[in-house]
Write a structure and sequence with these properties.
By secondary structure, the chain is α/β, with parallel strands linked by helices. It contains 9 helices and 15 strands. The protein has 2 domains: about 5-125 and about 285-330, Alpha-Beta Complex (Quinone Oxidoreductase, Chain A, domain 1); about 145-270, NAD(P)-binding Rossmann-like Domain (Rossmann fold). The structure holds NADP nicotinamide-adenine-dinucleotide phosphate (NAP). The site of NADP nicotinamide-adenine-dinucleotide phosphate (NAP) has 26 residues, from helix 1, helix 2, helix 3 and helix 9.
Amino acid sequence: MTDPHTTQGRAIVLDRFGEADVMTLRAVQLAAPAPDEVQLKQTAIGFNFIDIYQRAGKYALPLPSGLGHEAAGVVQAIGAGVTDLGVGDRVIYINAGIGAYADRRNVQAAKLVRIPDDIDDEDAVAIFFKAMTAQYLVRKTFPVKQGDVVLVHAAAGGVGQVLSGWAKALGATVIGTAGSPEKCRIAKEAGCHHAVNYSEEGWVDRVIEASGGRKANVVYDSVGKHTFLGSLDCAAKFGMVVLFGAASGPVPDFDPELLNKKGCLFLTRPSVFPHNADTATFRANAAEVFKAMQDGVIDVSIASRVGLDHVADAHRLAESRKNAGAIVIVP
Ligand SMILES: NC(=O)c1ccc[n+]([C@@H]2O[C@H](COP(=O)([O-])OP(=O)(O)OC[C@H]3O[C@@H](n4cnc5c(N)ncnc54)[C@H](OP(=O)(O)O)[C@@H]3O)[C@@H](O)[C@H]2O)c1
């Protein structure tokens, strides 16, 4: 018998870690929103590379688990104590706990921000998590300024494209790396002044040449294993290496003395979640991202759309490295 106080929904459930086909779509019963929560009918779900690490068990999760960090939707019901959102509001989140791969969901109101009227849900989801990442990287971790040389690895990827365009808008000379000539072309379109194919031997020398011998004041490295030691060689004296992902695998163990030998470098390994933990900071950062979208600093390019019943295709596409740009999951 159906409980009149619950709503029927569908969600991706993970019972074990593994390849893309471990994700299964199941019917779920959703309770009415608890105090301080709202119930969302989700309209678009963001695919992000972290979903792959978590599905594969590289970033551990308690099982069984949902998957996904980002979605946009419309508020359907509000729980007690929610005063700043109402039924019908269009909202988005990136940090409301795992489980965004679903058509309906209860979410803490404090984790939501309204989507501006002139940005549609799919465009928002295509870019929001990635742009919120680029936002803290260029504004907080290493505040990029006029005249800096910035190296962005995987510059044709989702985060990479936003990061390159934003660093250019801040007045930096941007050098991007990517894994093929076609992706180098995309990196340039996204704002890189120079693009280097890091699948070819000698890419570190090519990056240093592109910088006119100055090397990079900051290296944004989300590739990890295949690029990390090269990143240390590309960084200028007293420069910063920002390791923020591991698309090719975790970096090798190394002696911190290497940072001294390579030029008294700074190394950090940040994450988007602590940068957006409290509601006021999250909403202020989001406002900056929406403004960058409205001003054209950030361009939205949706590379493909997949249904919730085909999320495995999104994961396989990203893992194949044939993708460039955002994949949107449509519930
Ligand atoms: N720390 C944070 O706050 C944070 C937040 C968001 C994302 N990230 C990280 O940022 C990176 C990009 O995320 P995204 O969502 O923009 O993903 P994406 O669009 O799929 O980009 C990933 C890129 O990594 C490159 N890559 C290199 N080696 C790879 C491999 N073995 N398998 C797959 N891709 C490989 C690919 O470019 P080429 O083919 O050109 O090499 C690809 O474009 C990920 O490492 C992610 O974990 C970190």
